[in-house]
Description:
Blueprint: H1 3-31, E1 71-72, H2 74-84, H3 86-106, E2 112-122, E3 135-149, H4 153-219, H5 225-259, E4 269-270, H6 286-296, H7 298-320, E5 324-336, E6 342-352, H8 360-426, H9 432-467
Parallel strand pairs: 1-4
Antiparallel strand pairs: 2-3, 3-5, 5-6
Amino acid sequence: MPPKVFSLAVCTVFCVAQGALAQASVGAWLADPLDTESGMSASPAQAWTAPRRLPGVPKPQTLPAAEQGQVWTLPQLTAYALAHNPQTAAAWDGLRAQAAGLGIAESAWLPNLTLNTGFSRRQAVSTIGFTVPARNSANPNLTLSYTLWDFGLRAAKVDAARAQEWVAGFTQNQSIQAVAFSVAQAYYQLLGNQSLLRADEKTVAENRKNLEAAEVLHRAGQATIGALYQARAAMAQAQSTLAAQRQTVRSSEGSLASTLNLGPQTSLRIAPLKLGQKPPQLHSAAETLMQAALTANPALQQARAQVAVARANVRSAEASGLPSLGVSSSYGYAFQNGYLPGDTWTVGFTLTVPLFTGFNTHYQIRQTQALRDQAQSNLAVSRSSTEATVWQDFHNFQGAVAAYPGAQSGLENARKALEVVQAQYRVGQATIQDVLLAESTLAQARYTLIQNLVNSYVALAQLSQAVGMPLGENTP
């Protein structure tokens, strides 16, 4: 190939390559001119990281020094949680927002007053080079407008906004009840686990006595090595259960602290559960409580408020398709150098008659009517669900209360039975299996009584939440 031809070919290839690269870079720029994909990960397999700093995560609160060593009661814990739990704060902020929304709707009944001012500087140059002197001008204008009649549109929007405030209010009430119940549930759970811990400590102590007795009898030749091993195995099992229960108590302490917006490592002292006391009492019938829930349950009241919102929205949609009459007035003043200032004013009425909106109003009315019917159905569902929940929680509570005497009697008899069997074992009239069985029966009786008493308080708290108001004795 001649040198000139070779040089021309190399130049052509280089120019084509440069043009292709330039075209590719221009195409890439046109695909994402604002570089919005710069923060994306390089591949689908890589995790995405935020390119900008996100708002900080709020830290849990800490107890003041004066409150760290006190013994908390359930009312004190509930009051603290309601004041510091972010769930109640969020619901209250939502209520504030809806109250402001009511103000927005009511502002439609007031006139609008606006001030517009324009400033300009103008200069023209003719094609023959003649220049017109620069001219400055200012035109302030004040406008007042007010809707005289709109066939109930504003009133319907105000009613809808007021009903939305009711919804937010009942939402706040639900949040208060939810937080109060979560505190009660965590409190009773901790109370029960602490009682189970003390029961496990008693079981370990009893098994230690059994082991000591087995060792004495074995040295005296009155018990086999197998009986000694069984006593040691029972002791090891009791110690293992005790160690696990200590961790369960710590977990329950963290759950209770979290409901108060405290760190889970916070330790809260509460009074111990008294096993000799009777469970809480309730003197109302299920039918009475179901009737009370119809006016006290916040979820049911929220459903009623939603019906009020839906009805107001129907009236608003119907009124939006009707004429409206408004009045407006304006006053303006013009300043311009080289001329005397002048003013202008206008007063007029505006009649707006929607003739055809592409069936928009028609479908808005149909949509709001369907939502109204849905809200009515949801209200019926809420009523049925509330009554069923009250009925079930009432009988769950009654079942826990009814089972308490038997559980208490079982504990007393199991304790006496263990004492008898231990005395018989020491004199050789009972085996180690009899002792371990009696001790296991006593441990199970303690567990049953503790769980039954705790269940009665939790069931009463659930019933109170379902009804929507405090019932009976909620604290042990």
